[in-house]
Structures
1.
Amino acid sequence: MKKICIFNQKGGVGKTTTNINLSCGLAMLGYKVLAIDIDPQGNTTSGLGFDKSTLQNSIYDVLTDENVKLNDVIIESQLVNNLFIAPAKMDLAGAEVEMTGAENREIILKNKLKDIESDFDFVFIDCPPSLGILTINALSACDSVIIPIQCEFYALEGVGQLINTINLVKKSLNKDLEVEGVVMTMYDSRTNLCTEVYKEVTKYFGEKVFKTTIPRNIRLAEAPSFGLPINLYDDKCKGAEAYEDLANEFIKRQGGN
Ligand code: ADP
Ligand code: MG
């Protein structure tokens, strides 16, 4: 079971969109996938068609109550076979404070994941846009990180801090943590800016950058409001094609896994 977190402390770079659509893409290829939402905004949860207001248990309970196991909150997607989700809702915002006093507060998620160690092929964790205790829990719990980077002039701004955070976690909590890959989002191949930014990011991350880029595509922005992953909303659009390619490239990199 490989655990991967989708991490970039910048908001709006495509973390949640990537979490939703890469998870779905891999589930549709036949892998058993768990998508964990640890962002209090719960956008992965609603984007996969779950109504946050009617959810009983969520990842909040897993992180703040030692008696609640991940299995108690995991729900099966009604849309996609092989896809499961550990949902989040607004109450998760309070978890940061509640966890502050807890013993081993940085590795609560890591410890809870031990109960389901062989239940899935892949676990994806959608991080909030911050470097708080929720993100630290995600980074401590996972094997590797996928970093979405938005194709814009300031693309590399904040990347130094992001790498510092990864290195800090490596030093103290998770020495085997690796960068799995970097995915360029909202990419427009017709513009020089995007081509330049891709080159810059490749200079920094080398082979880690996925060959697949995710185009700016209005369908990707629309799909979450219908609670649908992109390939169920419009499987012919550029965004759907791109995330399908990303899932295939990801699997190829796993050496067939
Ligand atoms: P993050 O989780 O990093 O904050 P999101 O995945 O929520 O980022 O994306 C931010 C916003 O941009 C959302 O409204 C989303 O629907 C939209 N979006 C994400 N990726 C794309 C894309 N490739 N093309 C167009 N809109 C996108
Ligand atoms: Mg998000």
Note: The CA atoms of residues 189 and 195 lie 7 Å apart.
2.
Amino acid sequence: YLVYSGALAQENYIPTAENLKNREEFQDMKFGVFIHWGIYSMMADGEWIMNNKNLNYKEYALLAQGFYPSAFDAAKWVSDVKASGAKYICITSRHHDGFSMFGTKQSPYNIVDATPFKRDIIKELAEECHKQGIKLHFYYSILDWSRDDYFPIGRSGRGVGRINKGEWKTYHNFMLNQLTELLTNYGEIGAIWFDGMWDQPEDFDWKLREIYDHIHSIQPGCLIINNHHLAPIEGEDGQTFEKDLPGQNQSGYSSTATVGKLPLETCETMNHTWGYSITDKDYKSEKELIHYLVKAAGNNANLLMNVGPRPNGEFPDIAIERYLAIGRWLNEYGESIYGTRGGIIEPRDWGVTTQKGNKIYVHILNLEDDALYLPIQGKMIASVKQFIDGKPIKFTTSEKGILLNLNSKPDAIDYVLEIDMK
Ligand code: FHN
């Protein structure tokens, strides 16, 4: 077993040049695919089933002995992800149930040692991502429903049969050692994406800086993102929002998540559950998903859109259809999304703007009018045209802005205009 040596903590985190470059690249990617997959997928009712159904954790763990995802094909996953236009994958290396989806020496409760499948799917996926040029991020649950040393029992509780005593230090070392494995056995990792910190009271000492410094001591360029629903904490490289655009709080999770200065991301489900569900067929439409991607970009954030693969390892057909639809749209409009930053105009009810160099892209998503006012000074503008075919758009200038004459009410999923600035 690896032993964590400690003594890494720095007073103030100063990201390396490589880390800063990776933050820029992360922001340029704009779209990622989130994958929630584990032994819970066999129960086909989401990744919280052990908790929701109050299952005995030892009985639950026996699911592993029946986990044989015969259709798992990392090459197919990665090519589907590429076809969606996504540039990175974030996969659950270990979710709250504590089951590791990678070959770890820190606990036998993992896909290689506890299942008849015996294959390290994270290794296969990492190899394929590196081969096909997709960045790989690891979701890592900081809370655990299977280990006695995850102590004290958190808000989310856990399966039946646990005793509420343990040794936090061994759990902390367990995590550090697993992170060492994740960051040494699978090549370059784009980000570690923590989740579950909300399980303990706010004053609980997770020893985050030790964890963060440990990660950066192994891969200084690796981004640290933590879905803690709070403002960024020192040592982090990005800020993620769950089911909310930055600054919103429709989910109820984001009330304390002040938008900071780090690269932003929002994660969302296509249906309602993260892990595979056989009953949840309520998928968002192609239009809703594209709107969410565009709104994320207009709010200066990436979108991380989830899929819950079936227990046999396939993405559900409808998820593939939706990803392909987003991919077709990005094939045409990607220039107005990839590599952009949130626009100089604040997001509005009618839509958002993105910008890159001297171009501003106006994304009209919802306008009941044939004219649109923009607060951009006319004298700064070289031209305004339809993005798709370059057809000029007429406009009149007033003191503080321009009034675009669109001729008719836009009805495209996203009617994109390109403004070239002088
Ligand atoms: O409890 C998890 C949930 O299962 C899922 O992983 C999401 C993804 O953002 N995060 C947690 C809820 O905040």
Note: The domain at 351-421 is CATH 2.60.40.1180 (Immunoglobulin-like).
